[in-house]
Amino acid sequence: MSAPAASPRRGRPPAASREDVLDAAMGRYLRGLRIDVQALAAELGLGRATIYRWFGSREDLIGEVVARAGEPLIRQARASARGSGAQALVEAFDQINRGLAGSTALRRYVEQEREAALRVLTSESGKVQPRMVAMITELIADEVDAGRYEAPVDPATLGYAVVRLAEAFLYSDAIAGMRGDVDRLIEVEAALMGLSPPPPPAKGRALRAQAGGARRGTPPAGGRRSGQAIR
Fold this sequence. Notes:
The protein is mostly helical.
């Protein structure tokens, strides 16, 4: 005689994980919605205290999300950059800068939260800046270790300088929000990396031509902005 089939297990489903919280928060961020801890807790069947225990604060949770959203952009930029040494690094930096400046999700976040957003993005004790510095430093160190680039200072210091420069040119104050001055930024970064003279990138020239046409009432060719690497 066969044993009776086990009855289905009853009770509450398994609790959501820390990764589930990040995924749900990322979804809200990419859709331009406010990352609200109470809404996430209700959606995932968690207590707010659990989310705060995992992430420390709402700003740290958002920092994790923003940093994660930027990581694929950095990997893709280095993979698609042509050449080697300073030239490849500067081209990768340009792609990263334009991807961030063209990110709808990032722009909406900065516009919605202003002061808090700038704190999350640029604080040395936060989640975003240290992660960006580490990844840019790794790009530079790879070129140095391969003998393709001779850095004027150690890669960690140079990586920090590149990220801080980008912050100054991409983000403005809490009132103005996103600045997105990518054309001047890449010229300064090129000079910092030792490219002399630092020519403006082709993308920068195209964008300036489009902007001039828009001011004269002529729509830019194709009707789309370039450089939107992440939403």
